[in-house]
Design goal:
By secondary structure, the protein is an alpha+beta fold. Helix content is 35%, strand content 28%.
Length: 108
């Protein structure tokens, strides 16, 4: 009987350690990049395809980055903007705002 009680106490201790580890992992995963939104667009009215894009990578807290590439026949420009809680201290284009909404699951 003492062996059974000892094993039960061991199992309780192991279960409590696993519960703590699961809670730690749940909290940690909030910082992983896991929400993605992308919008392709043509910034110019004189033809061409949707070669430009805004890509947003966010974690569960809405923190991450927006990367926008503007493509022309002559050049390609790339811009990066930090995102905090779904917003940026820099002005956002309508495409970047839409990509953020997609990443946050607000539009499809």
């Amino acid at each position: 009987m003492e062996d059974v009680v000892g094993k039960m106490n061991e199992l309780k201790k192991e279960c409590e350690e696993m519960r703590k580890e699961i809670e730690r992992l749940k909290e940690e995963k909030k910082s992983y990049l896991q929400n993605i939104g992308m919008v392709r667009f043509n910034p110019f009215s004189d033809g061409g395809g949707d070669q430009s894009f805004s890509l947003v990578l966010l974690n569960k807290k809405g923190d991450g980055v927006a990367v926008t590439s503007l493509y022309t026949k002559e050049a390609n420009r790339v811009y990066g903007k930090p995102i905090k809680n779904g917003k940026s201290e820099y002005s956002l284009s309508k495409e970047e705002e839409r990509a953020i909404k997609e990443a946050l699951g607000e539009v499809k």
